[in-house]
Each structure stands twice: as C-alpha cells, then as structure tokens.
Design a protein that fits this description.
Layout: E1 14-16, E2 20-25, H1 29-38, E3 49-53, E4 65-71, E5 80-84, E6 86-90, E7 96-100, E8 104-110, H2 111-123, E9 128-132, E10 134-141, E11 144-150, E12 156-166, E13 172-176, E14 179-190, E15 200-205, E16 215-224, E17 227-236, H3 242-256, E18 263-275, E19 282-283, E20 287-289, H4 305-320, H5 333-348, H6 353-363, H7 366-373, H8 379-387, H9 391-400, E21 407-410, H10 413-416
Parallel strand pairs: 1-12, 2-3, 2-12, 3-9, 6-15, 12-20
Antiparallel strand pairs: 4-8, 5-8, 6-7, 10-11, 11-12, 13-21, 14-17, 14-18, 15-16, 16-17, 19-20
Organism: Streptomyces pristinaespiralis (strain ATCC 25486 / DSM 40338 / CBS 914.69 / JCM 4507 / KCC S-0507 / NBRC 13074 / NRRL 2958 / 5647)
Protein name: Lycopene cyclase
InterPro entries: FAD/NAD-bd_sf
C-alpha cells in the first residue's frame, strides 16, 4: 500500500521543511565540529545549516572524554578540561620514559562541555536550525539530499539540503585484513591526599597484566593533585566483561599506582574499532559520511578528534569558495599503510606491543611521535621512525599484506556507538 506524501511508507504524513545549504545528521563531535566550521566568520554569504540529533537516550552515547594535541590556541579552548606538556610511558619492567612537548599540548575535552559550548554558539545564529529528531533514512534526491526523520512525538519531517553529512555510527565495518578493538573502562577518582603529578600524562603504563593476544596499559589523566581519570585499556579482538575491567582497574590503582584510599566519582567506558578497512566517504552525489563512519579514526591508535577538525575545515572552505565538495581523506596513504602493517604485526603477535611503544618513545622525541600519529610528519621522519621499530617483523608483515583476504567485522551496538 502506498501513502501519499509519505516517502517512508509507514502511514504517517511527512512535513517537508525549507531546503538549506547543508543538512548534518548527528550532534556528536563530527556533526558539531562541521556545523561550527561551516558557520565560522569569514563567508560572504552565511551558509544555512540544519543539524538533526536524536532525542532518544538509547541512541545517544554516554558522556565521554576526547584527547588530542594541538599547537597554540584552539576553537574549543573554553571547553578544555586540562592540557599538559609532559608525557610519560612506563615499560613492562618499570622503565620510565618521559618526554616534554615543545609547541604541542596534549589536551582533554569532555563531550558535555564541548556540546554545550558549540551548541550555544549555533543556537544564537539565525541561519542554523537545530532539530531534535531521529534520522531513519538519508538519501540523494534531485538537487541535493534529504534526511527522513521522526520526532519524539512521532511527527515525521524531511530535511533537505544541497549537501548532507551523515555521522551516524556504522552497524558493521567494511571488509579488512586486520581489525582490533580498543576497549577501555575508566574511573574518575579522588584521593584524600595528593597522589598525582598534575603536570604529566601517564600515556601508556604497561605495568599491568598483559592479555594472551594484543596489549594492555594503564592511562592516567591528572586533573589536580587529588583528582584524575584512571583507565585500563586493551587492544585485542574482544572486549572484557565489566567485572574483568573492574578487577584490572582495582589492581592498577592499588598495586601499581599505590593510590591508597580513593573515591570513584564517575565511570566511563568505550569500544573503538581499529581497522585497516577503507571507509566510503561519499554515498551518491550529495550524501557524505563524516567522523568515525567516514574513516576519521586513526587505525593504529584510535584517536579521532584532530582528523575530524581537519576534515570539517576543508569542507567549510570548499563550500564557502563555491567549489565541489570532495571530502578529504582523514589520513594520508602513507600513514594508513604504516598503520596497516602495525595492526597486522600486533594481531599476529610478531611485535610485542608494550616493548614496541616503549622503544618508540625511548628512541624518538615525544613531539615527533605525536606528529606522526597525527599524520604530520614527512617522508624522512617516517623512515627514521620505521628504523626505531623491529625492522624484520615489520618488513615480513608488510610483504604479506597484499595477499591477505579482507573479511567483514560485525559490530555490537556498544562498539558502533563509541
């Protein structure tokens, strides 16, 4: 049975709003960053933007932490929780490698602060429409694209624009040769007496029991002498159970960090796919995918935020200049090739993960390592970095990659929403 005026075929009329320049689906880091970039000052004609975000609690991820590194002031400094210029890595045997950053700063945002900051800026702009609805379908249409949405009250609306950018999480990953999950659980803790050096991030602390497959490390973001985010992280094929995470965090906090008594004030957890799959950034003429679903997550580390900012600014520049929108690759080909080798080497166990990363930070300046992880190093720097790794196992892995089959990797709902 067909229903006039109802492209969803569900028996409800659909209200079509006025067309805009851009429709953005999803109000997380990718969607809000793009909306911010599109509406920043500098355009002769402000772009009209409709940003649709689901009101359903079951579809919204919990509050989470984003970390990245940056030079100088940034667009979201008013929402920063903390920043640091010193990083520390602990080897399995207790070796301490500490590095000081020169121009970069390692920075921490919380999603609620970021969303409040950018959301308030967007709400004040007359050419921005913020829509609370769940996008059920996005599609190309003549002259652009549209999102078919349903509100919390059950009303159906269609948002149409010349371009549509979709950041909704994927339900499955594209076929890949190697896929690991970065999964973690963290405690925001407070101690009664000073217990943290609030000038140093514990980036990787390998003084924790290692899994049979992959690697594990502690991660400490100090927020003051008595406050910190303490996380237990694994790179492996499957997540742990909640009791397993809790036991690992308890052991790390008490036996390794020796915090003494402490209070757990809040908890965060997540699962980030790390894969050498190739993500489609365009679906048809006017529908684009952004954020993690568009390949913004760095395969070998799980960092995403910086790539999202680069991509957002490139899209905004193209639209302001009246150019064709070609969503740039979040990471360069050389970086992706090196990441593919690294993932396979970790997945096969040819490279010992804790020893690999400890050696990397021991042999190279911390800032150079961070710039490599952000795809900001040149060919010569990448070659020097390559020689700081176990050359034999890495070359063997690189030689076999072209002959490996690519396989799909289904995601659970939790894995697709972090």
């Amino acid at each position: 049975m067909s229903h006039a005026g109802d492209p969803t075929g569900l028996g409800h009329s659909t209200v079509h709003g006025d067309a805009t320049d851009v429709v953005i689906v999803g109000g997380g880091a990718a969607g809000l960053s793009l909306a911010h970039a599109l509406t920043a000052p500098g355009s002769a004609r402000p772009l009209s933007v409709a940003l649709v975000d689901t009101p359903r609690p079951s579809l919204r991820p919990p509050e989470r932490t984003w970390c990245f590194w940056q030079e100088g002031p940034g667009d979201f400094d008013d929402a920063l929780v903390a920043s640091w210029r010193r990083l520390r890595v602990h080897g399995r045997d207790g070796e301490v490698v500490e590095g000081e950053l020169d121009t970069l700063r390692y920075r921490m945002l919380r999603s609620d602060g970021f969303e409040a900051l950018v959301g308030s800026r967007l709400a004040a702009l007359p050419h921005v429409r913020l829509v609370e609805a769940t996008a059920e379908t996005v599609r190309n249409v003549p002259g652009g694209a549209e999102a078919l949405c349903v509100t919390a009250g059950g009303d159906r609306i269609a948002l149409r624009g010349r371009h549509l950018f979709d950041s909704r999480p994927a339900r499955s990953l594209p076929p890949a040769r190697s896929t690991l999950l970065q999964h973690f659980r963290g405690w925001f803790v407070r101690t009664p007496a000073p217990a943290f050096d609030d000038e140093v991030v514990e980036l990787m602390d390998f003084r924790v029991p290692q899994p049979a497959h992959g690697l594990a490390f502690g991660y400490v973001l100090p927020l003051g002498p008595q406050d910190a985010l303490v996380e237990y992280t694994q790179f492996s094929r499957t997540p742990l159970s909640r009791p397993e995470y809790e036991a690992a965090l308890e052991q790390y906090s008490r036996d390794v960090l020796r915090l003494g008594p402490f209070e757990v004030r809040s908890v965060e957890a997540g699962v980030i796919p790390m894969t050498d799959a190739r993500f489609a950034r365009r679906v048809g003429a006017a529908v684009h995918r952004i954020g993690a679903v568009g390949g913004a997550t760095r395969p070998a580390t799980g960092y995403t935020f910086s790539a999202v900012q680069r991509q957002s600014k490139a899209v905004a520049a193209a639209l302001r200049d009246g150019k064709e929108v070609r969503l740039p690759a979040p990471h360069g080909r050389r970086a992706l090739a090196m990441d593919a080798v690294m993932l396979r080497a970790l997945d096969t166990g040819r490279v010992n993960g804790p020893d690999f990363f400890t050696r990397l930070f021991r042999r190279l300046p911390a800032e150079r390592v961070l710039r490599f992880l952000d795809g900001r190093t040149g060919l010569w720097e990448d070659l020097l970095l390559g020689f700081a790794t176990p050359v034999g196992p890495m070359l063997r892995t690189a030689a076999e990659l072209p002959f490996l089959p690519q396989k799909p990797f289904p995601l659970t709902r939790e894995e697709s929403t972090r």
